[in-house]
Amino acid sequence: METSFLSATILLILITDPLGNIPLFITALKQVKPERRKHVVLRECLIAFTVLLIFMFFGRDFLEVMHLTDESVRIAGGVILFLIAIKMIFPGEGSVFGGDHMHSEPFIVPIAIPLILAPSAMATVLLMSTREPTRMLEWVGALTLCMLVTTVVFLFSGKLQKLLGEQAITALERLMGLVLTAIAIEMLLGGIASYIRQFH
């Protein structure tokens, strides 16, 4: 499946799921003073962006050190995306915070990791960079655009939640989960097909 700049951007936005994470994000910032929230959002998004860039540029070296093939990363990425998508469509009880209550300003956890920087996001940028390293500028652009969207959504999370309402946000998350399921299956089948072709 040929991945374009637009499809890569949309995929990354679906994976980071900023709209679906609005309620969790607001919960994480409950104990943060209003005047500090913008600073926290920018800091956490920058941390997530930096880590994803590191994965993107040094992903191939990481695979070589760990003796992992592109096919294994594609299959693993497909499985992770599928699990994330299923959880988006059929959310269970509990939260991404593991039941802990936030009593101080969040730092890295839980906003940068795992709200933005989920394993599926790391697997996706790793896959992009290893499959088509010659298009690295496109992937960096797609990641940058995705992080800008995430930052804007988080900055205006309170207003968006009031404007759309929880039901609309939930419906959007279900729709994103459905699209992400199809992408995950496509990635999984592509990895399996590529692995099988090695023996022919």
TrEMBL record:
Entry keyword annotation includes Transmembrane helix: yes
Domain of life of the source: Bacteria
One GO CC term on file: plasma membrane
Keyword entries, A-Z: Cell membrane, Membrane, Transmembrane, Transmembrane helix
Subcellular compartments: Cell membrane
The protein's name in its UniProt record: UPF0056 membrane protein
Stretches assigned to coiled coil: none
Predominant subcellular localization, coarse grouping: membrane
Signal sequence interval, chain numbering: none
Transmembrane residue ranges: 6-29, 41-60, 111-130, 136-156, 177-196
Species this chain originates from: Paludibacterium denitrificans
Family under the similarity heading: Belongs to the UPF0056 (MarC) family.
Cross-referenced InterPro entries: Multi_antbiot-R_MarC
Membrane topology, from the record: Multi-pass membrane protein
